[in-house]
Amino acid sequence: MGNLATHYDPFSNPNDDETFSDYGYCGTYIIDGNSTGDKDLVCCKKCIKKFKQADAELQQARNSQLKDMQGFVDFMEKELTIKEEK
Length: 86
Ligand SMILES: [Zn+2]
What we know:
It is built from two helices and two strands; from the N terminus they run ββαα. The protein is mostly helical. It has one domain. The relative contact order is 0.16. The chain binds zinc ion. Zinc ion is lined by residues 7, 24, 26, 28, 44, 46-47.
C-alpha cells in the first residue's frame, strides 16, 4: 500500500479532461491522475517496459489522426467549392 507509481499515459492531454485515460499503459487503474504523458516522470516499471510499444502505437494514432484531419479538410474544401459555385 502507499505505492503510487506514476504510470505512463501516452494519450493524456492536460488541456482536455476527456482524453484522460482510466488506465495507465500497463493496464493499472489510475487513481487521482497518477499518470503522465512525460516519460521522464513515469516510475512504473511495467509502463517503462512498454515505452517502445507505446511509441509505435502513438505514432500510429497520430498518423490516423492526420489522415482524419486531411479528410476533413478535403471535405470542407469540397463543401466550400460547391457553395461558391451556386
Ligand atoms: Zn504502469
